[in-house]
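Contributing new records

If you add data, match the layout below exactly. Sequence lines come first and carry their own label; structure lines follow with theirs. Keep one chain per record. Anything else will be rejected by the validation script.
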Amino acid sequence: MTLFSDPSSQYSHRVRIVLAEKGVTVDIEDIDANNVTQEILEANPYGTLPTLVDRDLALYESKVVMEYLDERFPHPPLLPVYPVARAQSRLWVHRLERDWCGLVDVILANPESKKSEAMRKEFVESLTSISDIFVEMPYFMSEEYTLVDCCLAPMLWRLPQLGIEIPDNRQTKPLLAYIKRLFERASFQESLSDLEREIRA
């Protein structure tokens, strides 16, 4: 199994987190997203990263890759067992992508723009507003670590790169404790590329 991974991308990072959670032996090839190889283009007509190649199977959308890995390597499970809860987790991932992933992408692409400044404020306000979730549950809307957390962790790790600092106050303490829990997981530390480590060096 080979993962062609962009070492700076949140989308590749989330797949590396899942692989580390599952303890899967995989060859990870760091690729410059602007210079994809012919090998990747043969496996993935869009030439996007991450691209996972498992024997004759090639997958190239991060959510599809994560769910495939969760089904192919069922322990530990990263989606709930029951259909309603599984659907809810998928919906949370969808909402994260719609509401937050785009903000992160725009800010990273144009950090000095006025639009990015407005987006930073929006992101901080959104993060602060969910802090209470972590008073009742250790993970995002769940007692267990799930694919939703695998999607959130790369964004939260990149906050310094985005020019964002979460204020440390009474309201944000549960959120900051959640972030600390995510980053202290052995699988998360294992998932980090050299470029990602430098973000918080």
